[in-house]
Amino acid sequence: MSEGPSGGQPAEPAVARMLCDVRALAGEPRESSGVLWKLAESGRQLDANLIRLPAGEHIGTHAEPDLDVLVLVVAGDGVMNTPEGTLPLAEGGLLWLPHGSTRGITAGPGGLVYMTVHPRRPGMQIRRRSDLDR
Fold it and tell me: Which architecture characterizes domain 43-120 according to CATH?
């Protein structure tokens, strides 16, 4: 067993467990916008977010240059705009966004709740100047 973050107590082993009920979170007041839940467990290799967009709101066009992303539509509907065309979003839809892909999302009349999952980005590391000059 490895040592914990403070260097004293052994780290607890990761175990499978229920994290949340995304359907219950999706049913909360529809006026709220933004992140409803995010994966925050230590030692994880993934990042995940549950996001709500109220009716008609959108996330502007953007790209993820380094990471593939899975998008699962939990509730509501909307569209994803890509350079290749518009993809309809509806409850239960699962989309794969390969790294480098460009997209924008617009919620439909009932709003949109969706989950994103992708590999965790490595944290920033402080390096010695001599390491950077190599």
Answer: Sandwich (2.60)
Q: Where are the chain's structural domains?
A: 43-120
- Contacts with 74 (C-beta within 8 Å, 6 or more apart), sequence order: 22, 23, 26, 50, 91, 113, 114, 115
DSSP state of 10: B
Q: What is the per-residue pLDDT across 103-125, written as a single tens digit (0 to 9) for each?
A: 999 999 999 999 998 888 766 55
Residue among 72, 70, 80 nearest 107 (CA):
80
Residue 32 token pair: 């709220």
d(CA 23, CA 74): 7
Neighbours of 90 (CB within 10 A): 13
Q: What are phi and psi of 31, to 5 degrees?
A: -75, -25
Query: Which helix or strand (DSSP H or E) is residue 114 part of?
Result: strand 102-119
Bridge partners of residue 12, in order along the sequence = none
Query: What are the tens digits of pLDDT across the range 79-92?
Result: 999 999 999 999 99
Predicted model pTM: 0.75
SS3 65: coil
Among all chains, which residue has been given the structure tokens 């109220």? 54
